[in-house]
Amino acid sequence: MTSAGRRLLHNDSPTPGTLPGSAPELLSEETVLEQARLLDITWRDGGGLWGWLTTVDHKLIARRYVVTAFLMFIAGGIEAAMMRLQLARPENTFLGPDRYNQIFTVHGTTMMFLFAVPIMTAMGLYLVPLMVGARSIAFPRLNAFGYYAYLVGVVFLYVSLFINMGPDAGWTAYVPLSGPQYSPGHRLDVWAQVVTFTEIAALCAAVNIIVTVFKLRAPGISLNRIPLFVWSQLVVSFMIVFAMPAVATASTLQLAADRALSTQWFNPAEGGDALLWQHIFWFFGHPEVYIIFLPGLGFISPIIETFCRRRVFGYLAIVLANITTGFFAFGLWVHHMFATPIPELGQSLFTAASLVIAIPTGVQIFCWLVTLLSGRPRLTTAMIFILGFFITFVNGGLTGVMVASVAFDKQVHDTFFVVAHFHYVLLGGAVMPLFAAFYYWFPKATGRLLDESLGKWHAWLFILGVNVAFFPMHILGLNGMPRRVYTYLASTGWGPLNALSTIGAVVVVISVALFVVNAAMSARVGRPAGANPWDSYGLEWATTSPPPNYNFVNTPIVLGRHPLWDTGSPLPVITGLRADRREVLVTTAFDAEPDYRHRQPNASIWPLFLALCMAEFWIGSIFTPWAVVGGFGLTLLGMLGWGWQSSRQIEVERVDTDLQIIDTV
Amino acid sequence: MRRSRRLHGVATCVVLVSCVVACHGPQNVLDPAGSPNRIVNRLFWSMLVVSATVWIGVVGAALWGALTRRRTTREDLEPVVDLPNDDKQRQTRLVGALIAGTALILLLFLVFDFTVGRALAEHPNRALTIEIIGHQWWWEIQYVDADPSKIVVDANELHIPAGEPVQVTLSSRDVIHSFWVPNIIGKRDLIPGYTSSIFLDADRPGTYRAQCAEFCGVEHAKMALTVIVHSRADFTTWLAAQRAPATEPNDSSTKEGQRIFLAGPCSSCHSITGTAAYGTIGPDLTHLASRKTIGAGALANTRGNLAGWVVDPQSLKPGVRMPSNQLAPKDLLALLDYLESLK
Fold it and tell me: Residue A100 is inside which H or E element, if any?
């Protein structure tokens, strides 16, 4: 790369449209169209069902991921509604204890493992390559494999539920209740395997996002220009890499082994330890909460910036807050275990850590607040959901600070107070920003805008419903109502508040139904969006809506944190990637200078094949040890096929000479 | 007339509100009946005031900023401008101050919390000791004494004296349960393989309700414990009565009932002191008739409920370990007579 080009990329005050030092050469419209035509042929999938099954386009995979995960949100929501109906009045008989316990376990498992984490990583898998200006994601086949592994988990859990084999020991599956002695049958085996599938899927997504962010950024996106949403995805991906192996160890190597192979990890009678499970589970489980809502927080900055017409205040502070949260999240797990016999001095440490983590979250909220107050916002549906985030998440954060106190936590732990707390955090911190993101990026993915007036009904009803459903639970918890109870006596006096909470749940159901209608209609007949309907700044808005299968005709060059606002559209580009085969530009990790041209694999069936082999291996192993033998052979076959394709297709080539920086098209 | 109707309306509102936001009741954190929970309540109410203030501040600012100053869709989009340096510095100072304020509040809270933790951690050297063992889904209570003949075994009802600390040791026979008397003290888990102990410090005589707080299987919802706080004198009397062996059957019906109890399946799971029934799977029934509830708080201890429980416990508490018992009506009546005589 020329020194002029290098100077250009690190120029902090770029002049729009001109490139100092290089002789600008304009690409003619014909050249661009011809390039686009060739790229389309190269990146196109095969036709028909085979093409559908073999695609490795990150946008198609991510779209399926988002849709599947959202269906899981609806399934989990239906389960929640069933529980609320059961609890609407004392001694109700809508669900018996056995059915209720399955429903609440599947609700938690669905929402944590099959909805929240997958939908956040799926949003990342869609948006991150676009936001960093890449042709594709780093490992397209791994991406497809991750989705299919996740899908297997989804199908397996729901088939099990419908044949009365749904897990029933809570989404935390505490031993010894979940162990072989107290949960005979296959219900808990199902749980352990579903967790394994989703872990593998999350790890695939995390590795993919990390490498995409570090190596596929468009020239000029140095670390200090990475979009804030991408930062949150990066931090979360690292968290996944450290957190998920813990629960995979606990569920697969320990719980499943205790159940199937008679190991005694958790059996105190044989020298095992029941508390060990809680340590390992929460070492994953607490970071999990941040894994879910950090991407949620990541949605907020671009939305506020776009609709307030202001660059966000405190970019560096927000980035550091994300990283700090990622670190501290691993030092809090014992605050889920204050009621266990753990020495008080140790507990105090976790109280302090739990309070410290409120500071980075506070930093982000204050930064958004001053950004919001410095402009005059336009109150779109996305912005209303951001207001919902403030209303709801701040409440959840404050009760989170409260339960950091050991003495107070011992009173409300495992009660409806805690149920209220984490639903405020997750619905406020993750789901409301997620809906905001849907309204904001739906036009990018479909080319059509969601209906705003229906959207506003959805938003206000959702905010209202969530607060009516969950606020009373704080009081119920303080009034002594433990969580995970299928019924309660009238004499407890919990009836009226539970009825109120159920009314709130009905409002939530109505609002989500409005969204489903809105999405279904708008995808077909919504107002066409154009490339950049909100006049936003990110690279994802620099390509058409929906983006072509190769994302960008030429890789854009970025001269600031807000490319389209800094440089104006169209952006300067870099040329030289071949159009006749799938090539992506690999750049350096810190400064994003062009480094390699990497040839990516074409469409492939191996991801699906390998996911099915793995399904046979894990699911079959519940019923017969022979499944392990067969699964091992099939998996080996799948990996050989995968590697064989790689050896023929993937190449890396150093770039020094044939990439050229070209001024605007 | 109108005035009284209005009064009536006000009264209804007051009743409704107090019904909804309850600070009183036998199973309520906000109605402390002992000094540890009183301290926790003080902590809670101060946290609530601070939290509510912070919430109103943050959410108020966000809503004010977004709702009153919003740009309608008819107005043109504002161009993206960078703020002048003065404004940026003002923002920096504001955010800095807010963060410093947050850190200060958290620090004060931490100190407050540690003092509370310290106050709660102070334990007396000698105290009455009671052992509680968790079972799926009932509580076994043992009043420990150096003299084995004075040990009292009871179930699902905890009696303690007011005004003196009681040491409770907790363990579990099967899965994890959690002991929690909201009015008196926070939770402590009963974990198999671990024995832990806490101090109950009740100062207001009365009857309180406790419920298992850790999900423990199918009937977790119906694993309640009645906690009765006596004056010291009443407690001594009660304990003495419990130390007595079971009432001997004194008429033909109760004698027949005892025979059915001992000959039938009952005695393989339950024990009654002074008889040949030693079962340890279910609760000890030596003084069954003196208890307020049956089925671990599931039902009031009445003759009708007891009859239903003996014959078909599965319909009253589905999943409970006790099997159904097909008894001839005459035998059932005799058995009930006997059980009801176990004062």
Answer: helix A97-109
What is the distance in angstroms between the CA of the first residue and the CA of the last residue of chain B? 53
Tens-digit pLDDT profile for residues B88-137: 899 999 999 999 999 999 999 999 999 999 988 887 777 789 999 999 99
- Strands B224-230 and B177-181, sheet pairing: unpaired
Residue type (1 letter), B133: I
How far does chain A reach from its first CA to its final CA, in angstroms? 20
* Alpha carbon distance B177, A606 (integer Å): 47
What is the number of H-type helices and E-type strands within chain A?
A: 23, 6
Q: What is the ipTM of this complex?
A: 0.92
Beta-bridge partner residues of B135: B138
pLDDT band at A662 (very low <50, low <70, confident <90, very high): low
How many residues are given for chain A?
665
Rounded CA separation A222/A558 (Å) = 9
Contacts of A344 in chain B (CB under 8 A): 117, 121
| Residues 6+ away with beta carbon under 8 Å from B297 | A489, B156, B209, B211, B222, B223, B224, B225, B226
Mean of pLDDT values over A168-197: 94
Closest CB from B28, B78, B217 relative to A375: B78
Rg of chain A over Cα atoms, rounded to whole angstroms, equals 25
List the one residue out of B156, B191, B173, B193 whose CA is nearest residue B280: B173
> Smallest Cβ distance to B196: which of A341, A359, A562?
A341
Subunit contact A372:B19, Cβ cutoff 8 A: no
At B240, list the tokens.
């003495």
Which residues are registered as beta bridge partners of B172?
B134
- The total of other beta-carbon atoms located within 10 Å of residue A339's CB is 25
DSSP assignment of A572-616: PEEE---SSS-EEEEE-TTT--EEEEEEPP---SHHHHHHHHHHH
The answer to whether the Cβ–Cβ distance between B59 and A391 falls below 8 Å is: yes
Share of chain A above pLDDT 90, in %: 81
Spatial strand order in the sheet of B166-172: B152-155, B138-143, B128-135, B166-172, B196-200
Phi and psi, residue B186, nearest 5°:
-70, -175
Amino acid type, B203:
D
Please determine, for residue B208, whether its predicted confidence score (pLDDT) is greater than 70: yes
Within 10 Å of residue A83's Cβ, how many Cβ atoms?
20
Residues of B within 8 A of A405 (CB-CB) are 43, 47, 109, 113, 116
Q: Give residue B222's identity as a one-letter amino acid code.
A: K
Neighbours of B248 (CB within 10 A): 11
Q: Which amino acid is at B182?
A: P
CB contact under 8 Å between A478 and B30, yes or no, is: yes
For chain B, what percentages of helix, strand and coil (3-state, to nearest 5) are there? 45, 20, 35
Q: Which residues of A398-407 are buried (b: 16+ CB within 10 A; e: fewer)?
A: bbbbbbbbbb
Cα dihedral A629, A635, A641, A646 sign = negative
Q: How far is CA A336 from the centre of its chain?
A: 23
Closest CA to A114 of A75, A160, A62: A75
The pLDDT confidence band at residue B20, using thresholds 50, 70 and 90, is low
pLDDT (tens digit per residue) in A495-512: 999 999 999 999 999 999
Q: Around Cβ B52, how many Cβ atoms within 10 Å?
A: 12
Q: Please report how the helices B329-341 and B252-263 are oriented relative to each other, as an axis angle in degrees rounded to 10.
A: 100
pLDDT band, residue B43 (cuts 50/70/90) = very high
Over residues B142-188, the pLDDT tens digits come to 999 888 889 999 999 999 999 999 999 999 999 999 999 999 999 99
**Interchain CB contact of A15 with B (< 8 Å):** no
Residue B16 burial by CB count (10 A; 0-12/13-18/19+): exposed, middle or buried?
exposed
CB contact A438 to B (< 8 Å): no
Of A137-146, B3-12, B226-235, B280-289, give the lowest mean pLDDT range. B3-12
